[in-house]
Amino acid sequence: MHAVVVDGFGGPEVVRVAEVPVPRPAAGQVRVRVRAAGLNPVDGAVRIGVFGGAGERIGLGWDVAGEIDAVGEGVDGWTVGQRVIALHYGTVKPLGTHAEYAVLDADALAAAPASVDDVTAAVVPLSALTAAQALDLLGLEAGDSVLITGAAGAVGGFAVQLAARAGLVVSALAGAADEELVRGLGAAHFVPRGSGPAGPVDGVLDAAVLGEQALAFARDGGSYVGLRPGAAPEPVRGVRVAEQEVAADGAHLARLAALVDEDVLTPRVGETYALADAAKAHARLAEGGLRGRIVLTP
User: Fold this and answer.
1) Bridge partners, residue 49, by sequence
2) Of 151, 187, 227, 248, which cross-links 174 as Cys (Cβ 3.0–4.6 Å)?
């Protein structure tokens, strides 16, 4: 089968499509026939060596949508042919989801949202789980105020929708051109990039990784969650500072998929590329400016 790999670190030119054996599911795993797979900033970070793995062949891809192709021993509740989505966590792994087939732990899977196609479903797992788990870590309650930086991005956009649904008063920090977008997602207040909210907020979800600049907007004794491990600012003024690293969680992902079907969450696809054009897709990712995820299709 074909799979996207890197054998050394660098720019988009190091991305290549290799011929590799079709993987077999072990006990507790399933094999998914990949129909679509999101391309995320973390894939670019893996490509340039942020997470290490020098000298290894590294498979790319964390998001996947497709159907179950084979089921390993001891797996209950999943059968061949079911449409699923999943997060394939792992910074340095021999095979990711940017491939024709992917093997995943069964407890990472969720039924795909029925209301969208595979390309759209493929942008849900990583971004939605990141947003949801970060909000959980903030520990806010209905009526509390939250500032979400990078609110027009994939993670930030899901976070705005989830926070609004939870009854939080959302201030969305984004570029001036994105005011209508983030208000449409449920933000009560718009904060232009380079400025701050009208007053201190109970919590800050720093999807844009602004660090100390974003932490400054939290009230004394509030909370701050950063999304880049190792990059969180030092706590000040009693603000609780935490770093959120996404984790595969099929049960949580199933709840998020249901919210897609209820039109609570809006997956946004930026551009699509064939698997064979993965290097071009990485070049587009590096350019930035998209308001939706890139998706690869085998």
Assistant:
1) none
2) 151
